[in-house]
What we know:
The chain has 208 residues and is mainly alpha-helical. It has one domain (37-207). Helices cover 55% and strands 4% of the residues. Strands 1-3-2 form a three-stranded antiparallel sheet. Helix 1 (2-32) packs antiparallel against helix 3, helix 2 packs across helix 4 (82-93) and helix 3 packs across helix 4 (82-93). The longest helix is centred in the N-terminal third of the chain and has 31 residues, at 2-32. The radius of gyration is 19 Å and the shape is globular. 36% of the residues are buried.
Amino acid sequence: MEQLLFLLFALFIFYKLNAIYWRKSYRKFIQNYKFKSILKQRLLKTYPHLKDDEVNLVFQALREYFELSLNAKNNLLAMPSQVVDIAWHEFILNTREYTHFCNKAFGKYLHHTPTEVMREPRMAQESIKRIWKMACKKELISHLKPNKLPLLFAIDGMLNIEDGFKYTLNCDPNKGEYCASHVGCSGGGCSGSDSGCSSGCGGGCGGG
């Protein structure tokens, strides 16, 4: 009996150490991966006003999304940025390279979650809450009372993406905005005509 328990314990430790090893390997690959220049060219076809450093910022945000997806394990993460979503979509169209990337970055294929999920509160609630909290944690921001927006929630506004989700720390319910910090609360987000930002959860908001 003791030998069996020892064997089970040893297998458990082996499994944990193996998982840690592969997670570190996946994270390192994501951090060091170099996106192909063709992806940047394709992004510019949709958003020709972007400068080189702004395009690089978009792919930095996409890299961050992939890191958060790795940390989320099998949990769905909604995509809070339109411009990053387009960059991701262009990446997916390069099917062979994207499949190779996913195998090296996650050990499996990461399916695309379009920004349209942001517009369906019932479907998006948990995944939007999750990425808001994770993105805030990564940048050492309070998800309940943010003093700034994490990159994935700020980038559409920063780059003047016309069809993007433009967030601000000061909610204005008259502009049909989403309240980003409210997403992290148990009650979910507020948007559109019912987008009052009056709960005790704090500031950030955004609109599509």
